[in-house]
Specification:
about 20% strand; 8-stranded parallel beta sheet; two-stranded antiparallel ribbon; alpha/beta; 10 strands; TIM Barrel
Length: about 240
């Protein structure tokens, strides 16, 4: 089972990644994610042109992960870190099941988010995205150790696969890290060569896999229906 805030989900869980330029568009995306059978949703706030009223998205029927991804890790947010992390604090106060905060976040702000999440019972998913390639498993394990030290409840490591062996390297890391980390570790590789890892990783211990609701939010992302079908076929 995967604990997200007050929610308990059967792992592996399929997360519908929702993005949009307006709150209305994102609300429609959440509805589609529910219709398509997602187990939880990720709200990519960095795609919004205007944040006013975004908190209403927290009323979704499914558990919500709140994310405001910076450009340096593949997102659209271009402002100051204080501005970027403010909606995450609002999400914690508003009862979000989980926030996704990058390990690369300024340490002072990272510590504040972890502390506030602890007070409110919000889970902290700490993430690392590498768009340049796939480091060796030993290097990725060190990253997870840093996340655990910073107080994460779930670690997420995402790399880029230029070729199939990069996807295999991520899966090798996932197997090795099971005996190293005290928290659940989600991992997969982006890119066309990494597609396989998105459906195999959940079978090797990754508690969450991400799927597109409409437009993909990362290279190589499959849609919800395809992801759930493949997972079902591989598990049965």
């Amino acid at each position: 089972m995967l604990k997200l805030g007050r929610h308990q989900l059967k792992a592996p869980a399929v997360c519908g990644a929702v993005t949009g330029e307006s709150v209305a568009a994102m609300s429609a995306g959440v509805a589609r994610a529910i219709e398509q059978g997602a187990d939880l949703v990720e709200l990519r706030l960095d795609g919004l042109r205007e944040l006013t009223g975004w908190e209403k998205l927290l009323r979704a029927e499914l558990p919500v992960i709140v994310t405001n991804r910076p450009e340096r890790e593949g997102g659209s947010f271009k402002g100051r870190e204080e501005e970027r992390t403010r909606p995450l604090l609002e999400g914690i106060a508003g009862g979000a099941a989980c926030i996704d905060i990058e390990l690369s976040t300024e340490k002072r702000l990272l510590g504040r988010l972890v502390g506030e999440a602890r007070k409110r019972g919000t889970s902290v998913l700490m993430s690392h995205h590498d768009f340049t390639g796939t480091p060796q498993p030993s290097a990725l394990i060190k990253i997870v150790r840093r996340m655990v030290k910073e107080g994460c409840d779930i670690a997420k490591v995402v790399t880029f696969a230029a070729e199939p062996r990069d996807a295999l390297s991520v899966l090798d890391f996932l197997v090795q890290v099971q005996g190293e980390a005290s928290v659940p570790v989600a991992a997969f590789a982006m890119g066309d060569a990494g597609r396989l890892s998105r459906v195999v990783a959940p079978l090797l211990g990754s508690p969450i896999t991400y799927a597109a609701v409409s437009e993909a939010t990362a290279p190589g992302q499959l849609d919800i229906a395809t992801t759930k079908l493949l997972l079902r076929e591989l598990r049965d």
